[in-house]
Amino acid sequence: MINDQLTEKVKSTFLKQFETEPLLSFSPGRINLIGEHTDYNDGFVFPAAINKGIVSGVQKSNNDYCSVYAIDIDEVLEFSLSNIQPIENGGWKNYVLGVVTEILKKDKIIHNFDMVFAGNIPLGAGLSSSAALENSIVFGLNELFELGLTKEEMIYISQKAEHNYVGVQCGIMDQYASMFGKEKKALLLDCRNLKVTYFSIDFKEYDILLLNTNVKHSLAESAYNQRRSVCEAVAKHIEIPALRDATYDQLLTIKEEISQDSYQKALFIIQENERVLKASNALDKGDYTTFGELLFESHKGLQNQYEVSCPELDFLIDQAIKNPDILGARMMGGGFGGCTINIVKKGAADAFINTVAPLYHKQFDKALTRYDVQISKGTHKIK
Ligand code: GLA
Q1: Does residue 280's CB lie within 6 angstroms of at least one atom of ligand 1?
Q2: Which of the four CATH numbers 3.30.230.10, 3.20.19.10, 3.40.50.150, 3.40.830.10 does domain 2-200+376-381 have?
Q3: What does the pLDDT look like over 301-323, one tens digit per residue?
Q4: What is the pLDDT of residue 203?
Q5: 11 burial class (0-12, 13-18, 19+ CB within 10 angstroms)?
Q6: According to CATH, what is the number of the domain 206-372?
Q7: Are 133 and 225 in contact (CB under 8 A)?
Q8: Residue with CA at minimum distance from ligand 1 atom 10
């Protein structure tokens, strides 16, 4: 198994530091076929868990504090359960503290613990390393202290941790996909009621290719929250619970009362939501051409209407549009950097990368990194 080495690393580090066997679990990152920024509008998304993510090991501790060790960056967090506060610019530490706080808020009893974790998804690549980390913490603690939390409760704990401790008002897509993913299946998820339909993913003579721009925009978090409030304000103006309920007519009726910018953002959400459903229908029928076109359209909307793309992502999509071996491509995740997802003819990926990588490097002075993933199962215990 691909993550065997990662598991071994976590296990041996844990054994060395704490001289006892940890409870090990794996929590994956995710890709998203289509449906970006629709989740916090109560809309539809189409993600899948991947075979890369975070392995964590956890065990009860006899100390009077908790300790968490991030192997990859060689950093330790120590804290007392009776006094938890967010840390300013605390990075990964706030995910841990946030999850523990949200568990305690549910009146669940946990005791001091030691945890070690390591991962193989790059941070800020749009593959949701953050949800993988959050889920691995809540899942590990749920097992260790037999808290009896359901998977749904766990993903909401993860999401709340991100809202309250990290400050990103994220939707539920990442945590859901990471927790509930299945091998070779994408999840058509209704984010209003968490109703899911699993789709077998087999693009026949095409493969999924991820290309990492290696860009992470420092303003991504505030821009994300700002997009969310624009959407909520428009929904309120129309007097509907969320933009998922908006029709084109309703939006047109208020067009003159809101800014052009808000109009475009809301229009994008209505269109993107429709695209998710069209894309899942296309996949059902094996119509990969339509599926691919919807991906390109989604990118154009994210670029020009929702304005969460960046020059590097746009460059890669422009190159993909020109290439007859690529059915569709778009930026993936929150935006402002990270990966593009491309549906590429089998055997054609190398030629595409060999052509594009030098151009990309010339234009942006950055490396273009290929990322190979398989669609895999959600958060689980490693036996
Ligand atoms: C981030 C968030 C998700 C979702 C995507 C955009 O990954 O965590 O909830 O909103 O951005 O689709």
Answers
A1: no
A2: 3.30.230.10
A3: 999 999 999 999 999 999 999 99
A4: 92
A5: middle
A6: 3.30.70.890
A7: no
A8: 37
